[in-house]
Design a protein that fits this description.
The chain is of the alpha+beta class. It is built from one helix and eleven strands, in the order αβββββββββββ. A hairpin with a 5-residue loop joins β10 and β11.
Length: about 190
């Protein structure tokens, strides 16, 4: 008849089920990481704010989630910019006027008008008195946007020759959320 075989359960061999489970876990982790990498590479990006030009909306060293996917500038959006006209470094500013709009800045009252309407700017730190050295166009040309910091008297922005009008193609995306520090998490 049949032979009885004894199985030694004290064997130190790794069961094939363990290897299969490791493979399954690795596959699951890789499948979860690939979409995250894709999203962070092409849809969202996290950038660090440097300086005080966007006070009180953004603070120095805030980490901001930027939405990049097919972004088109809109009035009031806080955006990340690759570079200015004569400044080769990234900036984070607020879009004040976009292509085709008329712009007026009254430095005596610190007010801004777009298409003849006074902007209600609750986000600015204080009334603007700093003029800067750039040309402020009455009408924003096609393919450009006019940007300013919320801390108007401490901001290098479109009022300056160094930054000037921003080419829309140089706008990387919209700053959507402060993600760090944790006590400042908020939408922008």
């Amino acid at each position: 008849m049949g032979e009885i075989v004894e199985i030694d359960e004290s064997s130190e061999e790794i069961p094939s089920g363990f290897i299969y489970n490791c493979y399954e876990w690795t596959e699951t982790i890789v499948e979860a990481i690939i979409p995250v990498v894709f999203i962070l590479a092409f849809v969202f990006r996290i950038v660090s704010v440097s300086g005080e030009s966007m006070l009180n909306t953004l603070h120095n060293m805030d980490k901001v989630l930027v939405m990049e996917w097919y972004y088109k500038p809109k009035n009031g959006d806080v955006v990340v910019i690759r570079k200015g006209q004569n400044l080769d470094e990234p900036l984070i500013k607020r879009v004040i006027a976009i292509e085709g709009q008329t712009l007026g800045i009254d430095f005596s009252t610190g007010t801004v008008t777009v298409d003849g309407k006074l902007l209600e700017e609750r986000y600015i730190k204080e009334k603007m008195w700093l003029r800067e050295d750039g040309d402020i166009p009455q009408k924003i040309p096609k393919g450009y946007s006019f940007v300013m910091g919320d801390n108007r008297n401490n901001s290098l922005d479109s009022r300056s020759k160094a930054v000037g009008l921003i080419k829309n193609e140089d706008i990387k995306g919209k700053a959507a959320f402060v993600v760090f520090p944790f006590n400042r998490i908020k939408s922008i």
